[in-house]
Write a structure and sequence with these properties.
Number of helices: 2
Radius of gyration: 14 Å
Helix content: 10-25%
Number of strands: 8
Order of helices and strands: HHEEEEEEEE
Distance between the termini: 47 Å
Structural class: mainly beta
Shape: globular
Length: 132
Amino acid sequence: FFFFFFFKQKTAYEMLRSLVGSEMCIRDRYTWGAGEYGALGVGDAETQWFPAKVGFSGGHVPVANADCGTRHTAIVDKKGFLYMCGTGDAGQLGTGRRDKELFPRLINGIPERVESAACGVFHTLILTRAGK
Protein backbone atom coordinates (compact mmCIF):
# COMPACT_ATOMS: atom_id res chain seq x y z
CA PHE A 1 0.00 0.00 0.00
CA PHE A 2 2.78 2.45 0.86
CA PHE A 3 4.50 1.91 -2.51
CA PHE A 4 1.26 2.56 -4.37
CA PHE A 5 0.62 5.72 -2.37
CA PHE A 6 4.15 7.02 -2.97
CA PHE A 7 3.93 6.11 -6.66
CA LYS A 8 0.70 8.07 -7.01
CA GLN A 9 2.29 11.20 -5.53
CA LYS A 10 4.97 11.53 -8.23
CA THR A 11 4.23 13.67 -11.27
CA ALA A 12 4.44 12.18 -14.77
CA TYR A 13 7.59 14.23 -15.38
CA GLU A 14 9.26 12.82 -12.26
CA MET A 15 8.31 9.28 -13.29
CA LEU A 16 9.74 9.79 -16.79
CA ARG A 17 12.99 11.18 -15.38
CA SER A 18 13.30 8.21 -13.01
CA LEU A 19 12.72 5.75 -15.87
CA VAL A 20 15.17 7.47 -18.21
CA GLY A 21 17.83 7.85 -15.55
CA SER A 22 17.68 4.38 -14.07
CA GLU A 23 20.17 1.79 -15.30
CA MET A 24 17.66 -0.95 -14.49
CA CYS A 25 14.94 0.62 -16.64
CA ILE A 26 16.97 2.10 -19.47
CA ARG A 27 16.00 -0.65 -21.94
CA ASP A 28 12.29 -0.24 -21.36
CA ARG A 29 10.51 3.10 -21.70
CA TYR A 30 6.93 3.36 -20.50
CA THR A 31 4.21 5.90 -21.04
CA TRP A 32 0.54 6.27 -20.15
CA GLY A 33 -2.35 8.69 -20.34
CA ALA A 34 -4.39 10.14 -23.20
CA GLY A 35 -3.19 8.56 -26.43
CA GLU A 36 -5.64 10.30 -28.76
CA TYR A 37 -2.94 11.66 -31.08
CA GLY A 38 -0.53 8.74 -30.89
CA ALA A 39 1.82 10.77 -28.69
CA LEU A 40 2.43 7.86 -26.33
CA GLY A 41 4.46 5.94 -28.91
CA VAL A 42 2.91 2.56 -28.13
CA GLY A 43 1.50 1.83 -31.59
CA ASP A 44 -2.04 3.10 -31.27
CA ALA A 45 -4.02 6.21 -30.40
CA GLU A 46 -5.81 4.75 -27.39
CA THR A 47 -5.74 5.97 -23.80
CA GLN A 48 -3.36 3.90 -21.71
CA TRP A 49 -4.59 3.55 -18.14
CA PHE A 50 -1.46 1.73 -17.00
CA PRO A 51 2.20 2.04 -18.06
CA ALA A 52 2.68 0.67 -21.59
CA LYS A 53 6.02 0.01 -23.28
CA VAL A 54 7.13 2.54 -25.91
CA GLY A 55 8.08 0.80 -29.16
CA PHE A 56 11.10 1.63 -31.30
CA SER A 57 11.27 0.05 -34.77
CA GLY A 58 15.07 -0.28 -34.59
CA GLY A 59 15.05 -2.17 -31.29
CA HIS A 60 16.92 -0.89 -28.24
CA VAL A 61 17.44 2.89 -28.18
CA PRO A 62 19.36 4.27 -25.17
CA VAL A 63 17.31 7.32 -24.19
CA ALA A 64 19.05 10.44 -22.86
CA ASN A 65 15.98 12.65 -22.39
CA ALA A 66 12.43 13.21 -23.55
CA ASP A 67 9.74 15.85 -23.52
CA CYS A 68 5.99 15.64 -23.94
CA GLY A 69 3.69 18.09 -25.66
CA THR A 70 -0.08 17.95 -25.74
CA ARG A 71 -0.12 16.08 -29.05
CA HIS A 72 3.41 14.78 -29.55
CA THR A 73 6.53 13.48 -27.81
CA ALA A 74 10.23 14.09 -28.52
CA ILE A 75 12.85 11.55 -27.49
CA VAL A 76 16.60 12.17 -27.73
CA ASP A 77 18.91 9.17 -27.59
CA LYS A 78 22.39 9.11 -26.07
CA LYS A 79 23.99 9.46 -29.52
CA GLY A 80 22.09 12.70 -30.16
CA PHE A 81 19.43 11.39 -32.54
CA LEU A 82 15.88 12.72 -32.30
CA TYR A 83 12.77 10.54 -32.41
CA MET A 84 9.23 11.91 -32.58
CA CYS A 85 5.76 10.41 -32.22
CA GLY A 86 2.24 11.78 -32.11
CA THR A 87 0.48 14.03 -34.57
CA GLY A 88 2.22 16.18 -37.13
CA ASP A 89 -0.87 18.22 -37.98
CA ALA A 90 1.05 21.50 -37.55
CA GLY A 91 4.44 20.18 -38.66
CA GLN A 92 5.64 19.69 -35.08
CA LEU A 93 7.16 16.25 -35.77
CA GLY A 94 9.61 17.48 -38.38
CA THR A 95 8.77 14.69 -40.84
CA GLY A 96 7.52 17.03 -43.57
CA ARG A 97 4.09 15.38 -43.32
CA ARG A 98 0.95 15.83 -41.27
CA ASP A 99 0.53 12.13 -40.50
CA LYS A 100 0.42 10.59 -37.06
CA GLU A 101 3.43 8.59 -36.00
CA LEU A 102 2.24 5.90 -33.60
CA PHE A 103 5.78 4.75 -32.78
CA PRO A 104 8.81 7.00 -32.26
CA ARG A 105 10.25 7.83 -35.69
CA LEU A 106 13.86 8.86 -36.29
CA ILE A 107 13.94 12.42 -37.63
CA ASN A 108 16.43 12.93 -40.44
CA GLY A 109 17.84 16.20 -41.73
CA ILE A 110 19.20 17.65 -38.50
CA PRO A 111 22.83 18.52 -39.35
CA GLU A 112 24.12 18.27 -35.77
CA ARG A 113 23.55 15.98 -32.83
CA VAL A 114 20.65 16.93 -30.56
CA GLU A 115 21.20 17.64 -26.86
CA SER A 116 17.58 18.21 -25.81
CA ALA A 117 14.10 18.90 -27.12
CA ALA A 118 11.09 20.80 -25.82
CA CYS A 119 7.53 20.27 -27.03
CA GLY A 120 4.77 22.86 -27.13
CA VAL A 121 1.24 22.21 -28.30
CA PHE A 122 1.97 22.84 -31.99
CA HIS A 123 5.76 23.14 -32.14
CA THR A 124 9.05 21.52 -31.13
CA LEU A 125 12.31 23.24 -30.21
CA ILE A 126 15.67 21.45 -30.13
CA LEU A 127 19.05 22.43 -28.76
CA THR A 128 22.04 20.85 -30.49
CA ARG A 129 25.20 19.71 -28.76
CA ALA A 130 26.95 22.66 -30.42
CA GLY A 131 24.55 24.95 -28.55
CA LYS A 132 22.58 26.00 -31.62
